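Exercise 7 asks you to align residues with tokens for two separate proteins.
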Amino acid sequence: MTRNATTKKANRSNSGIIAGLNKGFKTTARQAKVSQKARLGLPKKRLRAVKAIIADLVGLTPMQKRVQEMLRVGKEKRALKLCKKRLGNITAAKKTRARVEDIMRKQQTKK
């Protein structure tokens, strides 16, 4: 059974002795800088605000309108299947369906 060298290294600390299990020069672990790639996925407040304003002004997309009609009739599963086919993955489809359900709920409370 082989062990991963990185996990092995993380578990032990060097003692400064030339031989033995913890051999090696004593070093202090430095925290790695967060890469640009990792920061790309973080949520952005300004972008969220802009999208919310645009959604309020423009309204629902044609796909969201179809999903809304399906939800009114009571075809939740069919609405999810439509979203999945258009968006390509189930997680995004569930989020879209939930967003449309929230919009419908808000419309009901306004009346």
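Second protein for Exercise 7:
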Amino acid sequence: TQSTWVLLIDRLWNEVKPLYSQLHTYTRKKLEATYPNVDFIEGLIPAHLLGNIYVNQWEGLLDMLNPFPGVASLDVTNAMVEQGFTSDRMFRSAESLFLSLGFPTLPNSFWENTMMVKPTTGSVSCHPTAHDMYGWNDVRISMCSEVTMSDMGMIYHEMGHSYNQLAYQRQHVVYRKGPNKALNEAVGDTIGIAFNSPTYLQSVGLLNVIEQDQQLRINHLMKLALEKIVLLPYALVMDKWRWDVFAGRVGVDHYNSHWWLLREQYQGISPPTVVSKLNYDMFTKYHMIQGQPYIQYYLSFILQFQLYEVLCNTAGHTGPLDYCNIAGSTAAGDKLWRLLEQGNSKPWSVLMKEFSSTDNISSAGLLRYFEPLFEWLRQQNEGGV
């Protein structure tokens, strides 16, 4: 029921809020030091200082927020260039991870029909997308990739969707999709997390042999947090605003003020200028004007760490979750394939219980993954928020 979903969503937020609050406090203090003449009223961060027009990710502030400047990072772009990586090689590298899990090779048609780079002529959409053509073994990806770690991570993500499509292709066409959009997105992101593992990058020769360097580790977790943790309250605000409007709790004259009230409450940010009822700031976001639910991203950003932890446990990993490497584990691959091949033939809660022994969406995996960063932030903030 709707009330059950709202309770679940609020419970998850209460669980991850302490991590976000510590990240928010650390960011605010850095910005206060950088912009001493700006008022940070009641601890709110002015939205225009956060380096993103939507304020849904703060990666643009990484240079300012990087915990240990000068420490080597996990960005392997330079290593990729030095080793002569091409777009084709990035795709082949992604396939090799799935093959090591026991997944089948991609069909020849995938390599023939996939658009890896932007064509020199014509107009195309460069938005990375995995296409299911609803034939037999007919999947493909379209994107305009460049040789960077970011694009390589996106290839791993999209190939996760392609293998999802191949896994459930034996289902009736009605069931040839994920059980819900949140779980579907989480599958791709789970593979993205696997790609970002320092031990995986080391195993494929993109990272020098390293011990568990704490400074490098905190830098890496900070970069991921500015993407994944920061999005959570934004995604929550997007659909909480819509739910309030649809329920008749907000009149047209208060659309914009209510939008910023929720952003203050959940994101801890303030508007860059006076809020006017003549403006509709929420409609700058594509998903809002197209009526596309955004809560799926909120849930998927939590679910992906739950799925990842299950795969790591199945692979026999012991130790910190952020150092897990599932490559080579056919046991983890078998578990993932059994989830994917069922498509939408069962309710998502049934599939989750089969996969993880619980039908509850849990933030425990996410909190364990970011625990080192959380403790570091608490020390920097001296426990205050």
